[in-house]
């Protein structure tokens, strides 16, 4: 228990969770596309949607596992055609993130979802990058992009995507690995991650969302990633837990996503507290907030209410989010100082 964190009345905890400065490190920008914006963009691009109303579309968001979500998520992203569409989607996310006191956001995007439909790489990256630049000026959110390879596609296609993106290499800081996990272990992408490491990109990968602890091991030892996205299945492997704790390898945990995709059907059963209590550098993120019923502060407040986490956990989660981020040591210190100030003065 850190001496700084005094006990806090249960009815004041949600306010503290909302107000604390935080970094969001696991958000798929295509997963921030709200049904209202899907309809608006479809109309702007003269496209038909197979749902009569926004409410009908939202009702289709009943998922049984990761794949059942991905099918509808890729369909939703098909309304993104022009650079302005990508800008508008990201701008809407930044407005919500700023309201949740997110001061740093490291944002995934899935270029293959768009280039496969004939949308040019520069359309995707330029639209998202312009929104990142404006986010700083308009909302005070410091943002960076991470390009994700789709793991249900081949490593050769990942290499082609990397080639297409390299002319814009100053507009994204790293690469990740997402999409259907089971049957697509990290080692399938060993060579392309090795190349990305040589090129100086930061490396992350989804592992241990639905997949076994072995996928977390290979993300670490074969891909050499610096963070594990999700990683909640790690708690099934005591040796892996020790390794993650010793190295302070961050796990970007997404509780509402795990609940909606039936990894933990009840939020009360989520292992976030277990990960923190074992000394892991876990933090809270929203994953695909438009599909999973909430942005980052909804993830915090609902998870704390369901699991009984306390102010000490809140403090640790906020600090971990900056420790795990790809910002400078000086920026980390500045943000964590702000976290400490809030916890000292909140009562
Ligand atoms: N793409 C968007 N959300 C994802 C998730 N939760 N897991 C894997 N790929 C994704
Ligand atoms: Zn994800």
What does this protein look like?
With 347 residues, the protein is an alpha/beta fold. It has 17 helices and eight strands. Helix 1 (13-19) runs antiparallel to helix 15 (296-307), helix 8 runs parallel beside helix 9 and helix 16 (311-323) runs antiparallel to helix 17 (329-345). The radius of gyration is 19 Å and the shape is globular. It starts with 12 loop residues before the first helix and ends with a helix. The relative contact order is 0.15. Bound molecules: adenine and zinc ion. Zinc ion is lined by residues 26, 28, 178, 206, 229, 287. Zinc ion binds next to strand 1.
List the defining traits of the structure above.
347 residues, alpha/beta, TIM Barrel, eight-stranded parallel beta sheet, 17 helices, binds adenine
Compose a concise summary of this entry.
With 347 residues, the protein is an alpha/beta fold. Helix content is 50%, strand content 13%.
Number of beta-strand segments = 8
Helix and strand element order: HEHHHHEHHEHEHEHEHEHHEHHHH
How is the CATH topology named? TIM Barrel
Taking the sheet with the most strands, its summary is: 8 strands, parallel
Helix content: 40-55%
Structural class: alpha/beta
**What is the multimeric organization of the chains shown?**
single chain
Q: Shape from CA axes? A: globular
